[in-house]
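I am sending you the entry underneath: sequence plus fold tokens. Let me know what the token row says about the fold:
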Amino acid sequence: MDGRGPSPKPSERGSILVFSLVGTLVLFALFAPLLWRLSGTYHVTERNFLVLAALNLAEAGAERAIWELNHGDITTWPGDLLARRLTLSGIQASGGAAVGEVEIVVSNPASDNPVVETTGRVPWSGGRTVDRSLRVVLQHGFKSHFDFGIFGDEGFDLHGDAYTDSYDNRLGPYDPLNPGTYGDVGTNADQRWDVVLLNNTRVNGNASTGHQSDPELVIRLSNNALITGTKTALETPKVMPSFIPPLLTERGALAVRTNTYHTTITESGRYTSFSMASNSKVTISGKVILFVDGNFNMASNTTLDILPGSEVELVLGNGTFRMSSNSTINNLTRDPRAFAILGTSSFLDMAMNSNTDFFGVIYVPEATLAMSANADFYGAIVADYISMSSNAGLHYDESLGTWTKYGVHTSGFVVKSWQERY
């Protein structure tokens, strides 16, 4: 015997084949839906991955355009003043595999609000591509404390023929026959009538109200009051930190008597009070910081002279600030950047009743400021609340919008809005 079992009969061999085929068909019927779903899931996963890759390309294109506007030379891109275009093809991943391409269009690149539109494309199947696009609106990143002619944190009121306009000190003195139209006013306030303009008040510029507010609700115009520009809400709230004075030599109280003219200050110092009696005069020369941590008072017919070439900071702490009629702070340089009045967190009350011109900036974010005089103010004002009347004119110095001394300034463009289109 050869040890092998009996051979299957032909009929038995046919039965085994049939059963095998039937089993295979049953297993295929059971697993086919699963295989189909797995195939569909693979295609969805693949497409989602390609969508993300296309979006990443579009975002990279937007970042490239912003960099080119801020640090490069976008005029080298094909196009003209209306639009510049650039296509980056054959983009590869770090491993060397091809990823796709991105098209970049920058509209109005020389304007204050360029628009960047980008489309990222990634190859798919059958010659098709997966596309994703972005639309990015840009704006200048100025963050100066003095980017408005008048800014009142909690509001302001202008009445009695008060008005605003502008000029640029870098280009020459103010020309009353040809004033600028950037006498902008603004506030963080967002409630009804937080801004009141009455009795022939004229704002030659734009007006901005609190973030996400309704300017028509916040601003009240009455009796021929006019805003020549636009009325809009702030893109973001304006940050107004209080000024922190440096440590200075203690000087005690300064009291200048009537008919005294020879008082001269050439060094910085901290004063417990500062008072000038009628018909007196104080002269300041050099780079000087005066921290008055008490009352500051200029009686009628007093003069505070700031000599040409000087830079003076008057920092106000606990106490009040008063300028009576016919008192004068005479910035002889006639450059608003040469004289600054700055308020600490404890300074709350300021009144200016002078009838003489003022060249300087006022930054008192916690104080109420009242101005009632027939005088011209050249510079900018920032306060908690501002009241201006009696033909007072505010001539905003446009150079202050990019002044870096008291605020952070970014000369380039930043994102105003960022929107995925499809």
Remarks:
- The chain has a mean pLDDT of 88.
- The chain has two domains: 48-142+413-420, 150-402.
- The longest strand covers residues 358-372.
